[in-house]
Amino acid sequence: MENLTFSLQKKDIQLLMLLQQDARFTNQQLAEKCGMSATPCWRRIRQLEEAGVIAGYRAVLDRKKAGLGIMAFVRVNIDSHNEQQALTFEQAVSELPQVIACYAIGGGADFLLQVVARELDDYSDFAMKVIRRLPGIKAMETSFVLKEIKPLSGLPVGDGYR
């Protein structure tokens, strides 16, 4: 079994917090903010990348300015809970660009999808013509986001979360 955790040192935590704030900081800027020289800073970042702690870098877009005014969470139940049925559903969902996140969950539903659309009519078409026709769908329930209070801004990697 692969080790799923990486032992983070204080400097690693500082670097991760800074990179989550702005991944465009130069190595020199990161080193200065962490009280390090550039070469050890670069090495630590490479170690975090190689260990998979840093999974990638990307731009954070403003959903509304990008023309995606609707965000919804869709709870989905599937007909059968066998492994093949779940894998078929997961593969189909993974290919849908409107689904920006998908989680297998416990409780009252099997999956939770986070979906974006330009406007309500677009979401309605997507829900009725695509989601409802996914393999094995038994039931779905949608909750619309009225206001984003705290959108994802990074993971809490500080001392209180080890």
Automatic annotation (TrEMBL):
Protein's organism: Mangrovibacter phragmitis
Stretch forming the signal peptide: none
Gene Ontology cellular component terms for the protein in this record: cytosol
HTH asnC-type domain span: 8-69
Pfam families: AsnC_trans_reg, HTH_24
UniProt keywords, alphabetically: DNA-binding, Transcription, Transcription regulation
One Gene Ontology MF term: sequence-specific DNA binding
Protein name: AsnC family transcriptional regulator
Biological processes per GO annotation: regulation of DNA-templated transcription; response to amino acid
Lineage top rank: taxon: Bacteria
PANTHER family membership: LEUCINE-RESPONSIVE REGULATORY PROTEIN, TRANSCRIPTIONAL REGULATOR AZLB
SUPFAM superfamilies the record matches: Dimeric alpha+beta barrel (SSF54909), Winged helix' DNA-binding domain (SSF46785)
Gene3D superfamilies cross-referenced by the UniProt entry: 3.30.70.920, Winged helix-like DNA-binding domain superfamily/Winged helix DNA-binding domain
